[in-house]
Structure formats: structure tokens, C-alpha cells
Amino acid sequence: MKFSHALGGLLSATVVLAAPAPVPVAEPMPMPTPPGIPSASSAKSQLAALTVAASSDTGTYDRDLFPTWDTISGTCNTREYVLKRDGTSVTVDSACYPTGGSWTSPYDGAKWTSPSDVDIDHMVPLKNAWISGASKWTTAKREQFANDVTRPQLWAVTDNVNSSKGDKSPDAWKPPLTSFYCTYARAYVGVKSYWALSITSAEKSALSDMLATC
To answer: What is the mean pLDDT of residues 85-92?
Structure first.
């Protein structure tokens, strides 16, 4: 009996000692996003303060009036800089061309491992900027706008989705993922506000609806 009790105690101790310690589980990393996205409440205030006016499309827009891509850091131009910033585990060669990594497009949720499948989208399209105030800017200022990595103007997204957007404003085009409406509208308004660009009434209505999803 004593032997049985002793053996039972030994087995219990063995079980206790053999129990594995809990392994910490890392929480999923948030999807990389450009800096400077205003909060929903700030975006709503900024939207209310934007000038509402009809767009002035005189047919004089030219993509070359917005020079891209500038050298941003080292050998990295604007496109390469954004690919590094918004990608996961991105490696580059001496010329800053991506040699590895992956990108998740926030517009549609698609994941890519080849940089050729990823476009850098201007949140506020260059033509939209032109017809809402940028036509009055100097070329130097338009260049700053087209290469703005300080605000949420540049996004790494699926190339086909970027093509479908083209130069459309939110009243004519919205990202496929409705769950991204809030962030999209906040970023769009933040860029328009900083660069003091006007919006049309249709644009404002669409942005208001999108901000209502926040």
C-alpha cells in the first residue's frame, strides 16, 4: 500500500513536471498603411470644411504635369519606397528593386509576391487634383503632391484594381472591399484637406456615406 502511494505520488510529480509550459502566441500584425490618416471624427470635420465646387475640367490635364517618381531615400524612388513600406518582409537589390516579399492590397484583399502585380495608387487621382485646384499650382508643387509619402496619398494595390479606379473620385468608384470604405474615405479627405483641394457635391455625398461606415 505504501509502495502504491509512493508510486502514485511519483507519477503525479512526473506528470506535473512533464506538462508543457504555455507558448505565447503573437497577435497578427496589422496591415501596413501610409502615415497621416485622420481619425473618423477628424475626417468628418475636415470634410465639412472643404470647399464644394464644380470641377473645372478644361481638357488641359497632362500626366507629365505631375512628375514622378522622385528619389526618396538612398537609391529608392517613390514607387520602390512605398513597396518597401507597405510590403511584408521585402528585400531589395542595390538598385532598390524588390527581390522578395509580399504585398496585400487593402482595396481588394488580394496578396501578391511579384512587384509587377502591384501598382502605386494616388489616393486622390492626379487628374482629380488637377481639376480641383492643382491646375493653378507650380509644377514643383504638383511634383510634391505626386510623390507625397508623408500623407496617405500613395498606396500599394493590385494593378488591375488601380486600373479600374483610374482617375475616378469616390462618387464614381469605391474599393471592392466595403470594409475598407472607412479608411479610404478618411485618407481621401485627409489628402484633399492638406492640399486644399475642392470637392464636388457628389464627391462630398459619397465621402459622407463612406465615413458613416466608420
So the answer is: 96
d(CA 213, CA 34): 20
Q: Please check whether residue 128 is in contact with residue 207, taking contact to mean a CB–CB distance below 8 angstroms.
A: no
For residue 57, the model assigns a pLDDT of 85
- In this structure, the strands spanning 118-122 and 111-112 are unpaired
Tell me the average pLDDT across 182-195: 98
Distance CA 191, CA 132 (A): 12
| Distance, CA of 210 to CA of 214 (rounded, Å) | 8
Contact call for residues 197 and 133 (beta carbons, < 8 A): yes
31-47: average pLDDT: 91
Instruction: Quickly count: other Cβ atoms within 10 Å of residue 77's Cβ.
Output: 17
Question: Peptide bond preceding 155: is omega within 30 degrees of 0, i.e. cis?
Answer: no
- pTM as predicted: 0.84
Q: Is 59 left (phi over 0), alpha (psi -120 to 50) or beta?
A: left
